[in-house]
Specification:
mainly beta, 1 helix, about 35% strand
């Protein structure tokens, strides 16, 4: 059986295996042939499927990374590789709020820049995620500008960061390194998945930045107290009403949770090529010895993900955009993983996705940034 589809690489360090080679082989084999269930079939809200930046009813996107809900049924889209912030109205028409498509850079994508000012003049560089806060402020994780930006009153300004690095302190002095997801916590705080610092950061209402968990600048895997825990390129974050912080530990292919200052692994299996007996069965061209392997399996004990990214809560259930598995997954409070939608192959159909990334829950449906398909889609959900 060919497993090349589940091997991906993100910078990391070799860590101890969580399972035996025999158990892992059985899980991978079972997971690769498991049919995905679905709560329903998805529908397309906006996007023609082709790369571009056209507004209107035949809008185009360019690998959109984030989605968030607005008033009156509107949806805001963080159009990552166009370096734009867009809005879809209740009728499905798209307009650009801020940002600009500039000169072409690497691989034919628009180049990113940094400029504050009026929304009509502001510039972004690979914005990845956003969150709406009271009084209409929108905070943007402007990833390649290493900053948190704010859109308010028709203007854009840099709230925190701006130079790659790691520094806590006041927002004017703080540094980030590829902040890739942002979520709102209680009492006005913001939580950031700071991907290349391999850390989770917090901005309190007074404008102080702290590192909640992770060893800044060091990728790895460790549960435990926040300052002892390790992550590997986290790119998704969600906060529950009771203050639990869920983290998509993307490079480790795990879902982690921070509670009362301590980190634990909620779901997923940490695996390295050396832990398997399948080094001659499809991995040779895709894996690096010291990189964790992604995979696919539902269940609890040996569930697997492949570059999980966007997170959203639906009641007590955590929804995961399992990006390189091209699936939407659900994690129960006790860590059991099920597949809601997706075939496992990059495609476009009512039950197929291509690198889904950002997600948010709107009533009883899930809004999805189907990044590889350049579309914004909706998937019905059932239950609480």
């Amino acid at each position: 059986m060919n497993f090349t589809r589940i091997a991906k690489k993100i910078t990391g360090k070799k860590l101890a295996s969580a399972v035996t080679a025999a158990a892992l082989t059985a899980v991978l084999a079972a997971g690769a042939i498991t049919a995905s269930g679905s709560e329903g079939l998805s529908r397309t809200i906006a996007g023609t499927g082709s790369h571009g930046a056209a507004d209107g009813s035949s809008a185009q996107f360019n690998l959109p990374g984030g989605v968030l809900g607005g008033s009156g049924g509107s949806i805001y889209v963080i159009d990552t590789y166009n370096n734009l912030i867009r809005r879809i109205d209740a009728g499905g028409s798209v307009r650009t709020m801020t940002g600009a498509v500039t000169a072409t850079g690497d691989f034919g994508f628009p180049r990113g820049f940094h400029r504050d000012g009026a929304a009509s003049e502001a510039l972004f560089s690979r914005p990845a995620s956003g969150v709406l806060c009271p009084r209409g402020r929108m905070y943007i994780a402007d990833s390649a500008n290493h900053s948190i930006r704010v859109i308010t009153g028709g203007n854009v300004y840099t709230f925190a960061g701006g130079e790659a690095g790691h520094a806590d302190g006041r927002v004017a002095e703080a540094q980030f390194n590829r902040p890739s997801a942002i979520a709102r916590g209680s009492c006005g705080s913001l939580y950031i998945a700071d991907a290349l610092n391999h850390a989770v950061r917090r901005i309190d209402p007074a404008g102080n930045v702290t590192t909640v968990a992770g060893t800044p600048g060091v990728s790895g895997y460790a549960d435990g107290a926040g300052d002892e825990a390790q992550f590997n390129g986290p790119m998704g974050i969600a906060v529950s009403p009771d203050g639990a912080v869920f983290v998509a530990d993307t490079g480790n292919h795990l879902i982690r949770v921070i509670e009362n200052g301590s980190v634990r692994t909620l779901a997923g299996t940490l695996v390295f090529p050396a832990d398997t007996d399948m080094n001659g069965n499809g991995y040779d061209d895709f894996y690096i010895d010291d990189e964790p392997l992604g995979g696919f399996a539902d269940g609890e004990a040996y569930a697997m993900f492949n570059l999980p990214m966007g997170l959203a809560l639906h009641g007590e259930t955590l929804i995961v955009a399992d990006s390189a598995n091209h699936r939407i997954r659900a994690v129960s409070p006790d860590g059991e993983v099920t597949t809601l939608a997706g075939t496992g192959y990059p495609d476009y159909s009512p039950d197929a996705f291509h690198m889904p990334r950002g997600v948010y829950v709107r009533g009883n449906e899930l809004i999805i940034a189907d990044s590889g398909n350049n579309m914004i889609r909706a998937l019905p959900l059932s239950g609480n």
